[in-house]
Amino acid sequence: MRKSPLRPATVNREFALMRRMFNLAKRDGLVEKNPCDYVTALPERNKRDRILTKEEYKRLLEELREPVKSIVTFAYYTGMRKSEILNLTWDRVNLVEGYVDLGHGDTKTGEKRRIFLNDELKHILMNANKVRNISHQYVFTRKNGHKVKDIREAFLLACKRAGIENFVFHDLRHTFNTNMRKAGVNHTVVMNITGHKTTEMFLRYNTVDDYDSQEAIRLLDEYLQNEGSLCKKKSGTKVTHWDV
Length: 244
Hints:
- The chain is mainly α and 244 residues long.
- It has helices at residues 8-27, 54-62, 68-78, 82-86, 119-130, 152-161, 171-182, 187-194, 199-204, 210-235; strands at residues 93-94, 99-102, 113-116.
- Helices cover 49% and strands 4% of the residues.
């Protein structure tokens, strides 16, 4: 027995599968009608807007041990999905030029991506490269040399110890998108890094908070003041007409 009810998104995915099955049966003459045609999908409303503040990120790192600490750091600075990080292999890493190349089979969308690394991530990879396991190519391993398969329990416990509520690993992707946007990076560049194909999906992962609203008002006030000063300057300028 399930401890919690199914989410609307899960119900909709199963319903879509059922609709497809009946459509195939109808095509082959096994049924006359598709009963799913009369059923409306549930509203999902599953958008999350939780991001990690700088202070929370610092507290979280203090509660994490390796290799989970490095994995979280990677997600924070690259926006990579958890599966992309855990399945990262050394043949995808270029330590000389400082980037990671994800192939068609490495990403959720099947699209190749090149992700450049900051100094902290380069340092993490260089240290990992010194003790890399010879039996496999995975970058992130445990002390016994085995590949890291799951970090959910360790991550949630660290969040609890750090006093961070309502935060899951995937929210680090939201955090990355939001931080990049606040840093002034064009959204098309962010989409190229994260692999988002549409602006709609990018906006879903971009959180606007109180700071953004306050900053918008400050910029508007600055603009209006400058505009007023410019108008005064123009009105006070004496224009001389020269006869030709």
